[in-house]
């Protein structure tokens, strides 16, 4: 089951990557890559904090046998879904960052070749 889910998430990451590249283009620097990545990670962490708050509330509701159980569970479900979406964005940004690093390495190789051949 996890294997199927990973395939779905991988496909969703590829779609998010294409959408991000169309909307924002390539990352321009490692600093930009880091900033975008950290912003997306912060958004995942915010959803995790929300899940944690509702989970704490849920335990209190269970212990007191209160009737708000469904509301907390719905909130946990929604925050988990949002965290999953944000995590897919983190994966897409990480790939964009990897692409930037790969491009920089290729460009460094081109510069080394130009110096070696006396061009540049």
What does this structure look like?
- This protein is mostly helical and 120 residues long.
- 88% of the residues lie in helices and 0% in strands.
- It has helices at residues 2-24, 30-64, 69-116.
- The N and C termini lie far apart (54 Å).
- The model has no long low-confidence stretch (mean pLDDT 87).
First-last Cα distance: 54 Å
Task: Provide the helix percentage.
Answer: over 70%
The secondary-structure class comes to mainly alpha
Rough shape? Answer: elongated
What is the N-to-C succession of helices and strands? HHH
Number of strands: 0
Largest sheet: none
What is the residue-mean pLDDT, rounded to a whole number? 87
Strand content: under 5%
Our Rg estimate from Cα atoms comes to 21 Å
Low-pLDDT stretches are none
Please give a quick description of this structure.
By secondary structure, this protein is mainly α.
Task: Lay out the secondary structure.
Blueprint: H1 2-24, H2 30-64, H3 69-116
Helix pairs in contact: 1-3, 2-3
Features of the shown structure:
120 residues; mainly alpha; 3 helices
